[in-house]
Amino acid sequence: MTLSTLALVPVLALVCTPAFAAEPVSAGERLAATCTACHGTRGNTAGTALPPLAGQSKETLLANLKAFKEGSRPATIMTQLAKGYTDEQLAQIAAWFAAQRGEKGEKP
Ligand code: HEC
């Protein structure tokens, strides 16, 4: 190996370093991924039958999720779904949706 080849090693290491690890995924975001199938990407369901989760306050989201879990708010599907999460996980999910942009693209 010549000196000039050796000089390329750090350059190649830089070029080959994957860039996908830039933003760590939070627990709330990971858990909320299962909700997006019905509630839209990042909780935006503008123009559909479901109210957008994005932009609602964390307190409102959490209160509704707990009401679903306890069965005090009647629902078709959310009662079963909410039972699958601990209160801490529901709080993480609520915080994540609350931090997403609302229906009109503005922060709550
Ligand atoms: C299979 C489709 C489906 C999935 C998956 C789903 N939801 Fe729902 N969600 C609904 C439906 C339908 C409603 C309306 C209430 C009902 O009938 O259950 C609803 C209502 C809600 C509401 C009340 C919204 C409001 O403003 O009144 C919240 C909050 C909510 N879902 C959160 C979640 C979260 C968090 C997840 C992921 C853990 C999730 N949902 C996953 C279908 C779904």
UniProtKB/TrEMBL annotation:
Keywords for the protein's UniProt record, in alphabetical order: Electron transport, Heme, Iron, Metal-binding, Signal, Transport
Database matches in PROSITE patterns: CYTC
Instruction: Read off the InterPro entries from this record.
Output: Cyt_c-like_dom, Cyt_c-like_dom_sf, Cytochrome_c_Oxidase_Subunit
Domain Cytochrome c span(s) in chain numbering: 23-101
Any coiled-coil regions, as ranges: none
Signal peptide span per the entry? Answer: 1-21
From the Swiss-Prot or TrEMBL record, what is one GO molecular function term?
metal ion binding
Matches recorded under PANTHER family: CBB3-TYPE CYTOCHROME C OXIDASE SUBUNIT FIXP, CYTOCHROME C4
Q: What is this protein called?
A: Cytochrome c
Source organism per UniProt: Pseudoduganella lutea
